[in-house]
Write a structure and sequence with these properties.
Structural class: mainly alpha
Helix content: 55-70%
Shape: elongated
Number of helices: 7
Low-confidence stretches: none
Distance between the termini: 12 Å
Number of strands: 0
Protein backbone atom coordinates (compact mmCIF):
# COMPACT_ATOMS: atom_id res chain seq x y z
CA UNK A 1 0.00 0.00 0.00
CA UNK A 2 1.54 3.30 -1.12
CA UNK A 3 1.71 6.16 1.36
CA UNK A 4 0.04 9.33 0.09
CA UNK A 5 2.49 11.84 1.57
CA UNK A 6 0.53 14.88 0.40
CA UNK A 7 -2.60 13.62 2.22
CA UNK A 8 -0.57 13.01 5.38
CA UNK A 9 0.91 16.53 5.24
CA UNK A 10 -2.52 18.10 4.68
CA UNK A 11 -4.07 16.05 7.47
CA UNK A 12 -1.33 17.00 9.94
CA UNK A 13 -1.37 20.68 9.00
CA UNK A 14 -5.14 20.85 9.59
CA UNK A 15 -4.64 19.67 13.18
CA UNK A 16 -1.87 22.15 14.03
CA UNK A 17 -2.83 25.38 15.74
CA UNK A 18 -1.84 28.64 14.15
CA UNK A 19 0.71 30.71 16.04
CA UNK A 20 -0.72 33.95 17.38
CA UNK A 21 0.65 36.91 15.46
CA UNK A 22 1.77 34.83 12.47
CA UNK A 23 -1.67 34.40 10.94
CA UNK A 24 -4.96 36.22 10.99
CA UNK A 25 -6.70 33.25 12.61
CA UNK A 26 -6.66 33.11 16.44
CA UNK A 27 -5.97 29.85 18.22
CA UNK A 28 -8.98 28.79 20.24
CA UNK A 29 -10.36 25.36 19.46
CA UNK A 30 -8.36 22.49 18.01
CA UNK A 31 -8.61 22.14 14.24
CA UNK A 32 -8.50 18.33 14.16
CA UNK A 33 -11.50 16.58 12.69
CA UNK A 34 -14.04 14.90 14.92
CA UNK A 35 -14.89 15.62 18.54
CA UNK A 36 -11.92 13.90 20.20
CA UNK A 37 -9.57 16.92 19.94
CA UNK A 38 -12.21 19.16 21.54
CA UNK A 39 -12.84 16.55 24.23
CA UNK A 40 -9.11 16.47 24.99
CA UNK A 41 -9.14 20.25 25.45
CA UNK A 42 -12.23 20.12 27.69
CA UNK A 43 -10.71 17.39 29.87
CA UNK A 44 -7.41 19.31 30.04
CA UNK A 45 -9.27 22.43 31.20
CA UNK A 46 -11.15 20.44 33.85
CA UNK A 47 -7.82 19.00 35.01
CA UNK A 48 -6.41 22.51 35.46
CA UNK A 49 -9.40 23.33 37.69
CA UNK A 50 -8.78 20.11 39.66
CA UNK A 51 -5.10 21.05 40.00
CA UNK A 52 -5.97 24.44 41.46
CA UNK A 53 -8.52 22.86 43.76
CA UNK A 54 -5.96 20.37 45.06
CA UNK A 55 -3.51 23.18 45.82
CA UNK A 56 -6.19 25.29 47.53
CA UNK A 57 -8.23 22.89 49.67
CA UNK A 58 -8.69 19.29 50.73
CA UNK A 59 -12.50 19.55 50.68
CA UNK A 60 -13.17 17.99 47.26
CA UNK A 61 -10.33 15.46 47.52
CA UNK A 62 -11.75 14.16 50.80
CA UNK A 63 -15.05 13.53 48.98
CA UNK A 64 -13.27 11.02 46.74
CA UNK A 65 -11.37 9.13 49.45
CA UNK A 66 -14.25 8.57 51.87
CA UNK A 67 -13.23 5.20 53.28
CA UNK A 68 -10.26 6.58 55.19
CA UNK A 69 -10.25 9.00 58.11
CA UNK A 70 -10.22 12.62 56.83
CA UNK A 71 -6.80 13.25 58.40
CA UNK A 72 -5.33 10.56 56.09
CA UNK A 73 -6.09 12.79 53.08
CA UNK A 74 -3.21 15.20 53.61
CA UNK A 75 -2.12 18.45 52.02
CA UNK A 76 1.03 16.69 50.79
CA UNK A 77 -1.05 14.01 49.07
CA UNK A 78 -3.28 16.67 47.50
CA UNK A 79 -0.31 18.68 46.21
CA UNK A 80 1.28 15.53 44.76
CA UNK A 81 -2.01 14.69 43.07
CA UNK A 82 -2.21 18.29 41.81
CA UNK A 83 1.20 18.00 40.13
CA UNK A 84 0.21 14.71 38.48
CA UNK A 85 -3.09 16.23 37.34
CA UNK A 86 -1.35 19.28 35.89
CA UNK A 87 1.07 17.01 34.03
CA UNK A 88 -1.87 15.05 32.59
CA UNK A 89 -3.60 18.32 31.65
CA UNK A 90 -0.55 19.48 29.70
CA UNK A 91 -0.27 16.18 27.82
CA UNK A 92 -4.00 16.17 27.04
CA UNK A 93 -3.85 19.82 25.96
CA UNK A 94 -1.08 18.98 23.52
CA UNK A 95 -3.10 16.01 22.29
CA UNK A 96 -6.00 18.34 21.54
CA UNK A 97 -3.91 20.31 19.05
CA UNK A 98 -1.54 17.58 17.83
CA UNK A 99 -4.00 14.67 17.71
CA UNK A 100 -2.28 13.07 14.70
CA UNK A 101 1.13 12.84 16.35
CA UNK A 102 1.48 9.22 17.46
CA UNK A 103 3.81 10.04 20.36
CA UNK A 104 1.50 12.67 21.83
CA UNK A 105 -1.60 10.56 21.19
CA UNK A 106 0.03 7.61 22.95
CA UNK A 107 1.07 9.74 25.92
CA UNK A 108 -2.45 11.12 26.29
CA UNK A 109 -3.90 7.63 26.04
CA UNK A 110 -1.58 6.49 28.83
CA UNK A 111 -2.68 9.38 31.08
CA UNK A 112 -6.21 7.98 30.92
CA UNK A 113 -4.97 4.44 31.53
CA UNK A 114 -3.07 5.61 34.61
CA UNK A 115 -6.09 7.57 35.89
CA UNK A 116 -8.36 4.58 35.29
CA UNK A 117 -5.90 2.30 37.09
CA UNK A 118 -5.57 4.69 40.02
CA UNK A 119 -9.26 5.25 40.65
CA UNK A 120 -10.19 1.61 39.98
CA UNK A 121 -7.57 0.36 42.40
CA UNK A 122 -8.59 2.87 45.08
CA UNK A 123 -12.22 1.71 44.75
CA UNK A 124 -11.74 -2.04 44.19
CA UNK A 125 -8.38 -3.01 45.74
CA UNK A 126 -7.33 -0.51 48.39
CA UNK A 127 -10.92 0.41 49.23
CA UNK A 128 -10.08 4.02 50.11
CA UNK A 129 -12.80 5.37 47.81
CA UNK A 130 -16.44 4.60 47.18
CA UNK A 131 -18.14 4.85 43.84
CA UNK A 132 -19.88 8.07 44.87
CA UNK A 133 -20.43 11.19 42.75
CA UNK A 134 -16.95 12.54 43.52
CA UNK A 135 -15.18 9.35 42.40
CA UNK A 136 -17.60 8.57 39.59
CA UNK A 137 -16.59 11.57 37.46
CA UNK A 138 -12.89 10.63 37.03
CA UNK A 139 -13.84 6.99 36.51
CA UNK A 140 -16.29 7.91 33.73
CA UNK A 141 -13.92 10.42 32.09
CA UNK A 142 -10.94 8.06 32.14
CA UNK A 143 -12.98 5.08 30.91
CA UNK A 144 -14.78 6.93 28.12
CA UNK A 145 -11.61 8.69 27.00
CA UNK A 146 -9.55 5.51 27.04
CA UNK A 147 -12.12 3.53 25.06
CA UNK A 148 -12.68 6.41 22.63
CA UNK A 149 -8.96 6.83 21.99
CA UNK A 150 -8.43 3.09 21.51
CA UNK A 151 -11.41 2.86 19.14
CA UNK A 152 -10.32 5.83 17.01
CA UNK A 153 -6.57 5.20 17.15
CA UNK A 154 -6.18 4.38 13.46
CA UNK A 155 -8.34 7.33 12.42
CA UNK A 156 -6.22 9.91 14.24
CA UNK A 157 -2.74 8.44 14.28
CA UNK A 158 -0.72 8.54 11.09
CA UNK A 159 1.65 5.59 10.98
Amino acid sequence: MALDTQAVIERRSEALPSLSGLTDEPVVLPKGEGLLPKWQLLVAAMAVFNTLQNFATLKLTRRVYTRVPPNHVTALQARTFAVWTLTAAIVRGYAAYYIHDKRIYDMALFTYLIAFGHFSSEILIFRTARLNSAALSPVIVSTVSLLWMLRDYDFYVTH
